Amino acid sequence: MKRLFYSLLLLSQMSVCHAATVTLPRAEQFELRAATTDNQPGPRYRILVALPDGPAPAGGYPVVYVLDADLVFHSVVETLRLQSRRPLATGVLPALVVGISYPEEDDVILRRAVDYTPTPAAQPAADMSATMRSAGGGADRFLDFIDKTLRPTIAQRYATNPNHQVLFGHSLGGLFALHALFNRPQSFTHYIAASPSWWWNDKVMATEESAFRRQPDAARGRALLLTVGEFEQSPSRFSDNMPGGIATLTRRAMVDNVRALSGRLITMPGMRVKALELTGENHLSSLPQAINRGLRFALEP
């Protein structure tokens, strides 16, 4: 009986320990509101920031801006901290990570569909939710928030390097990264577009790309990494379980679009372009590799 009592006591103590809150070291969060437009207050954003372990270098920390921070902020931070412990051995510099997310009470699916896209979807399909079909077109306003509100706030609060600024986006976030590159290439030095949703409105993106390529000087000193998973277009044993099945993969042509886009942009003078096709990965399983390879691409010493 005594042994049973102590066993139950130990289990209760373990339960209490497991309920403790886990925090990310050297990280903080705060809220920012976009600028007022048409006498209406701008939307609110939840900003997550993680500092490197060591002091800032003389020129300030490089900064990695991460979209969809509610999903990937912790992954980016821990991947970066692990890789940057020995920069000369790993080829990755320590950097400040800034995640852009939304207040918990907001509809994240709706807000990202608005913020990350230059227009509503060109051809809303059955595999898209009703929310996605009706959203889109806020990319320029969101880019204004980043350029005019968020980046100045980060520069004021932390020691940052204005000449080493990285934007990371996946899926619709990857589409936004390309929109930012084509329209305001000087906003960032490095753009990482992981599995970009070019299909959202390919005619609009093609127009933006053409205008960008007609201004080769705008690309000088910029760097772009494109990533895509093999099974984002090729059939796999999971294809039938996604909305629309293989027909969706074929229609979106994620791999073909990345190949074609990188082939066109790689000829621009003064711009570094790299494309990675990730073997055996799908739209979501490719994300950890995109984070890992993207950090190495953008933060080499």
TrEMBL record:
Keywords: Hydrolase, Signal. Residues 1-19 form the signal peptide. SUPFAM superfamilies: alpha/beta-Hydrolases. It holds the Pfam family Esterase. It comes from the Bacteria. Belongs to the esterase D family. This is Ferri-bacillibactin esterase BesA. It comes from Viridibacterium curvum. The gene is besA.
